[in-house]
Design brief:
Layout: H1 7-17, H2 20-35, E1 38-39, H3 47-51, E2 59-63, H4 88-101, H5 112-115, E3 119-123, E4 128-129, H6 141-155, E5 160-164, H7 165-169, E6 181-185, H8 190-193, H9 203-213
Parallel strand pairs: 2-3, 2-5, 5-6
Antiparallel strand pairs: 1-4
Amino acid sequence: MKVNIDKSWKKQLDSEFEKDYFKDLTDFIKEEYTKYTCFPKGKDIFAAFDYCSFEDVKVVILGQDPYHGVNQANGLCFSVQDEIAMPPSLINIFKEIEKDVDQPFPKTGNLERWAKQGVLLLNATLTVRAHQAGSHQNKGWEKFTDTVISTISNEKKDVVFLLWGGFAKKKVKFIDADKHHILTSGHPSPLSANRGYWFGNKHFSKTNKILASIGKETIKW
Protein backbone atom coordinates (compact mmCIF):
# COMPACT_ATOMS: atom_id res chain seq x y z
CA MET A 1 0.00 0.00 0.00
CA LYS A 2 1.35 3.43 -0.95
CA VAL A 3 1.07 6.31 1.51
CA ASN A 4 1.46 9.85 0.19
CA ILE A 5 3.88 11.27 2.74
CA ASP A 6 7.03 13.38 2.53
CA LYS A 7 9.99 11.23 1.42
CA SER A 8 12.10 12.12 4.46
CA TRP A 9 9.42 10.59 6.69
CA LYS A 10 8.75 7.72 4.31
CA LYS A 11 12.36 6.67 4.74
CA GLN A 12 11.91 6.56 8.53
CA LEU A 13 8.44 4.99 8.63
CA ASP A 14 8.28 2.82 5.53
CA SER A 15 8.12 -0.46 7.45
CA GLU A 16 5.20 0.86 9.52
CA PHE A 17 3.02 1.26 6.45
CA GLU A 18 3.37 -2.45 5.69
CA LYS A 19 2.15 -3.65 9.07
CA ASP A 20 -1.24 -5.29 9.41
CA TYR A 21 -2.63 -2.66 11.78
CA PHE A 22 -1.83 0.12 9.30
CA LYS A 23 -3.45 -1.76 6.45
CA ASP A 24 -6.56 -2.21 8.60
CA LEU A 25 -6.45 1.48 9.48
CA THR A 26 -6.21 2.41 5.81
CA ASP A 27 -9.24 0.28 4.97
CA PHE A 28 -11.19 1.90 7.80
CA ILE A 29 -10.26 5.44 6.71
CA LYS A 30 -11.14 4.78 3.06
CA GLU A 31 -14.57 3.49 4.08
CA GLU A 32 -15.17 6.42 6.46
CA TYR A 33 -14.26 9.02 3.84
CA THR A 34 -16.51 7.27 1.32
CA LYS A 35 -19.56 7.00 3.58
CA TYR A 36 -19.26 10.14 5.71
CA THR A 37 -17.87 13.65 5.72
CA CYS A 38 -14.48 13.44 7.42
CA PHE A 39 -11.69 15.89 8.21
CA PRO A 40 -9.16 16.99 7.23
CA LYS A 41 -9.36 16.66 3.45
CA GLY A 42 -7.64 13.54 2.18
CA LYS A 43 -4.70 15.49 0.78
CA ASP A 44 -4.10 17.07 4.22
CA ILE A 45 -4.11 13.94 6.38
CA PHE A 46 -0.29 13.88 6.46
CA ALA A 47 0.16 17.67 6.23
CA ALA A 48 2.15 17.80 9.49
CA PHE A 49 4.84 15.69 7.80
CA ASP A 50 4.66 17.49 4.46
CA TYR A 51 5.28 20.93 5.95
CA CYS A 52 8.00 19.77 8.34
CA SER A 53 10.52 17.22 7.07
CA PHE A 54 12.14 14.72 9.42
CA GLU A 55 15.48 16.49 9.13
CA ASP A 56 13.95 19.85 10.02
CA VAL A 57 12.11 18.80 13.20
CA LYS A 58 13.32 20.77 16.20
CA VAL A 59 10.06 21.22 18.14
CA VAL A 60 7.13 18.82 18.54
CA ILE A 61 3.67 19.92 19.72
CA LEU A 62 1.18 17.13 20.39
CA GLY A 63 -2.56 17.40 19.95
CA GLN A 64 -5.26 14.76 20.25
CA ASP A 65 -7.90 14.99 17.49
CA PRO A 66 -8.36 17.14 14.40
CA TYR A 67 -11.07 19.79 14.66
CA HIS A 68 -14.37 18.26 13.56
CA GLY A 69 -16.16 21.41 12.36
CA VAL A 70 -16.57 22.25 8.67
CA ASN A 71 -13.41 23.63 7.02
CA GLN A 72 -11.51 23.88 10.31
CA ALA A 73 -8.90 21.10 10.23
CA ASN A 74 -5.89 21.42 7.94
CA GLY A 75 -3.78 18.51 9.17
CA LEU A 76 -1.75 20.48 11.72
CA CYS A 77 -2.68 20.20 15.40
CA PHE A 78 -4.34 23.30 16.91
CA SER A 79 -4.26 24.96 13.46
CA VAL A 80 -7.22 26.09 11.36
CA GLN A 81 -7.57 27.12 7.76
CA ASP A 82 -7.21 30.78 6.82
CA GLU A 83 -10.41 32.81 7.27
CA ILE A 84 -11.76 30.31 9.83
CA ALA A 85 -12.62 31.58 13.31
CA MET A 86 -10.03 30.52 15.87
CA PRO A 87 -11.19 27.89 18.39
CA PRO A 88 -10.83 28.77 22.10
CA SER A 89 -7.67 26.68 22.65
CA LEU A 90 -5.89 28.40 19.79
CA ILE A 91 -6.94 31.82 21.07
CA ASN A 92 -5.40 30.94 24.45
CA ILE A 93 -2.19 29.80 22.75
CA PHE A 94 -1.89 33.16 21.01
CA LYS A 95 -2.71 35.03 24.24
CA GLU A 96 0.18 33.27 25.95
CA ILE A 97 2.49 34.04 23.02
CA GLU A 98 1.45 37.71 23.25
CA LYS A 99 2.48 37.90 26.90
CA ASP A 100 5.47 35.58 26.68
CA VAL A 101 7.35 36.83 23.62
CA ASP A 102 5.56 40.12 22.94
CA GLN A 103 4.27 38.86 19.59
CA PRO A 104 1.12 40.59 18.31
CA PHE A 105 -2.06 38.53 18.09
CA PRO A 106 -2.13 37.11 14.52
CA LYS A 107 -4.82 37.62 11.92
CA THR A 108 -5.00 33.92 11.05
CA GLY A 109 -4.96 30.69 13.03
CA ASN A 110 -3.18 28.82 10.26
CA LEU A 111 0.03 27.45 11.80
CA GLU A 112 1.74 26.45 8.57
CA ARG A 113 4.27 29.18 9.33
CA TRP A 114 5.35 27.27 12.45
CA ALA A 115 5.57 23.95 10.62
CA LYS A 116 7.81 25.46 7.96
CA GLN A 117 10.23 26.52 10.72
CA GLY A 118 10.62 23.00 12.09
CA VAL A 119 7.64 22.62 14.43
CA LEU A 120 5.95 19.24 13.97
CA LEU A 121 2.26 19.82 14.76
CA LEU A 122 1.20 16.24 15.40
CA ASN A 123 -2.25 15.02 16.36
CA ALA A 124 -2.40 11.56 17.95
CA THR A 125 -5.34 10.78 15.65
CA LEU A 126 -5.00 12.17 12.14
CA THR A 127 -8.64 12.01 11.01
CA VAL A 128 -12.15 12.46 12.42
CA ARG A 129 -15.76 12.17 11.29
CA ALA A 130 -17.56 15.52 10.97
CA HIS A 131 -19.08 16.75 14.24
CA GLN A 132 -18.06 13.57 16.10
CA ALA A 133 -15.03 14.20 18.28
CA GLY A 134 -12.94 11.10 18.88
CA SER A 135 -14.74 9.08 16.21
CA HIS A 136 -11.48 7.77 14.70
CA GLN A 137 -9.70 7.05 17.96
CA ASN A 138 -8.50 3.52 18.77
CA LYS A 139 -8.45 2.47 15.11
CA GLY A 140 -4.66 2.47 14.73
CA TRP A 141 -3.67 6.11 14.37
CA GLU A 142 -2.34 6.27 17.94
CA LYS A 143 -0.05 3.31 17.31
CA PHE A 144 1.30 5.05 14.23
CA THR A 145 1.84 8.44 15.88
CA ASP A 146 3.43 6.82 18.96
CA THR A 147 5.91 5.27 16.53
CA VAL A 148 6.53 8.73 15.04
CA ILE A 149 7.36 10.10 18.51
CA SER A 150 9.61 7.13 19.29
CA THR A 151 11.39 7.48 15.94
CA ILE A 152 12.10 11.17 16.56
CA SER A 153 13.35 10.33 20.05
CA ASN A 154 15.60 7.52 18.83
CA GLU A 155 16.98 9.06 15.65
CA LYS A 156 17.37 12.73 16.63
CA LYS A 157 18.63 14.71 19.62
CA ASP A 158 17.87 18.02 21.30
CA VAL A 159 14.28 18.18 20.08
CA VAL A 160 11.93 20.27 22.25
CA PHE A 161 8.70 18.43 23.07
CA LEU A 162 5.76 20.55 24.26
CA LEU A 163 3.27 18.36 26.11
CA TRP A 164 0.06 20.21 26.98
CA GLY A 165 -2.57 18.49 29.09
CA GLY A 166 -2.96 14.99 30.47
CA PHE A 167 -3.26 13.22 27.12
CA ALA A 168 -0.04 14.68 25.71
CA LYS A 169 1.87 14.14 28.97
CA LYS A 170 1.24 10.39 28.68
CA LYS A 171 3.45 10.39 25.57
CA VAL A 172 6.51 11.16 27.70
CA LYS A 173 7.19 7.41 27.92
CA PHE A 174 8.15 7.44 24.22
CA ILE A 175 10.71 10.24 24.66
CA ASP A 176 14.30 9.85 25.89
CA ALA A 177 14.58 12.68 28.42
CA ASP A 178 18.38 12.37 28.45
CA LYS A 179 18.57 13.32 24.74
CA HIS A 180 15.68 15.76 24.43
CA HIS A 181 13.98 18.69 26.15
CA ILE A 182 10.47 18.18 27.56
CA LEU A 183 8.21 21.05 28.64
CA THR A 184 4.83 20.25 30.20
CA SER A 185 1.83 22.30 31.28
CA GLY A 186 -1.94 22.24 31.38
CA HIS A 187 -3.91 22.27 28.15
CA PRO A 188 -4.76 25.63 26.51
CA SER A 189 -8.48 24.78 26.48
CA PRO A 190 -10.61 27.23 28.50
CA LEU A 191 -11.40 24.60 31.14
CA SER A 192 -7.73 24.15 31.96
CA ALA A 193 -6.48 27.65 31.15
CA ASN A 194 -9.07 29.39 33.32
CA ARG A 195 -8.02 27.27 36.29
CA GLY A 196 -4.46 28.54 36.01
CA TYR A 197 -2.86 25.53 34.33
CA TRP A 198 -1.92 27.19 31.02
CA PHE A 199 -1.26 30.91 31.19
CA GLY A 200 2.23 31.84 32.33
CA ASN A 201 3.93 28.60 31.25
CA LYS A 202 6.25 30.64 29.00
CA HIS A 203 6.78 27.63 26.77
CA PHE A 204 7.44 29.77 23.71
CA SER A 205 10.29 31.80 25.18
CA LYS A 206 11.65 28.70 26.95
CA THR A 207 11.67 26.81 23.66
CA ASN A 208 13.59 29.59 21.95
CA LYS A 209 16.11 29.77 24.80
CA ILE A 210 16.75 26.05 24.44
CA LEU A 211 17.10 26.31 20.65
CA ALA A 212 19.48 29.27 20.94
CA SER A 213 21.57 27.45 23.54
CA ILE A 214 22.20 24.56 21.14
CA GLY A 215 22.90 26.79 18.16
CA LYS A 216 19.59 26.33 16.37
CA GLU A 217 17.49 29.09 14.83
CA THR A 218 14.66 30.18 17.11
CA ILE A 219 10.98 30.02 16.15
CA LYS A 220 9.09 33.14 15.06
CA TRP A 221 5.86 32.38 16.90
